[in-house]
Amino acid sequence: MKKITIKGTELDVFPIGLGTNAVGGQKYYPNITDEAGREFLRKALSVEMDFWDTAFTYGPKRSEEIIGEVLAADKARHNVVLASKAAHQFTEDGTVYNNHPDFLQEAVKESMERLQTDFIDLFYIHFPDEDTPKYEAVGALQELKEKGIIRAIGVSNFSAKQLAEANQDGYVDVVQDHYNLLTRGAEETLFPYINEHNMSFVPYFPFASGLLTGKYTPETTFDEGDLRLNKPDFQGGKWQENLAKVDKLRDIATAKNCEVAHLVLAWYLTRNEIDVVIPGAKTAAQIESNMKAAEVELDESEIIVIDSLFR
Ligand code: NAP
Fold first, then answer.
1. Could you tell me the domains of the chain?
2. How far is CA 196 from CA 170, 190, 191, 309, in A?
3. Does 39 have pLDDT greater than 80?
4. Which pTM does this prediction carry?
5. Pocket test for ligand 1, best of 155, 205, 231 (most atoms within 8 A of CB)
6. Ligand 1, atom 36: nearest CA belongs to which residue?
């Protein structure tokens, strides 16, 4: 397995990274303990899964704190490339997004404290706010980049128009957005700009929250409170349709002696825009398994077949 350089940056990583919203993520996944989160991270270290994606809001704060604890205990900060994000602000009226330059610079400082590090490799504006000019928000991160406090700048959940505004001075390196075989809008909205400006795209929800791993059947049920019970892809006719599509990947996976989940991750990595993926995991075994996707190579006809099954 070879490391790649994330386009637009000097960050070298293995192409299968780790999404850590389940690490300390009791807000989203009440049944996952802090200790389970530590175990995921230790497993990721042991299989050299070295690109970790976190955010202020995972936990909130707890994902970053647990990552900081594990890296400090294992003296492993330099073994991983850390990406974090900020924009959520808790106010008396509820949660709002804030991209004000002062807010973002303070957020980076606080993230570094929780992560127990004096630099963050990639820092994203997690969501756009309504007020701040996007080039000013990115300009605040550029100041930190010039001081060596962050190494690359990202934006997430930005429209194409907001991305162009954010990149007015050419400072945006990486874009993160919702993208997977079932949700492909970014191909039309964001990819043209990303290609033209030599940026890298990091897809979130690469497994469509587990649907694209091929493990669900029409009989699968989810526990009360599971986030998937409210997701459109998991409802009624759409759910049946999605399962039928995923089922068609099984023969290709079997012929290649890999799992459906590996095939799906490998397909993303054939896209010019995508250098690295960040599947989430709720067990250490899933982390170990996902790393195997880096060894799956798809030929041109397989790439086209998978593409057309989900068009
Ligand atoms: P995901 O990657 O689409 O799905 C992850 C889920 O798939 C796991 O929690 C697990 O769920 C299942 N899974 C993973 N590997 C598996 C395997 N090998 N075999 C079988 N099942 C497997 O969704 P996600 O974790 O929510 O998203 C990925 C990352 O994207 C997050 O961790 C976060 O870092 C990032 N993200 C960013 C944003 C943003 O606004 N920028 C938004 C959302 C997510 P079960 O075991 O429960 O089935």
1. 4-210+261-299 (3.20.20.100)
2. 12, 10, 8, 27
3. yes
4. 0.98
5. 205
6. 204
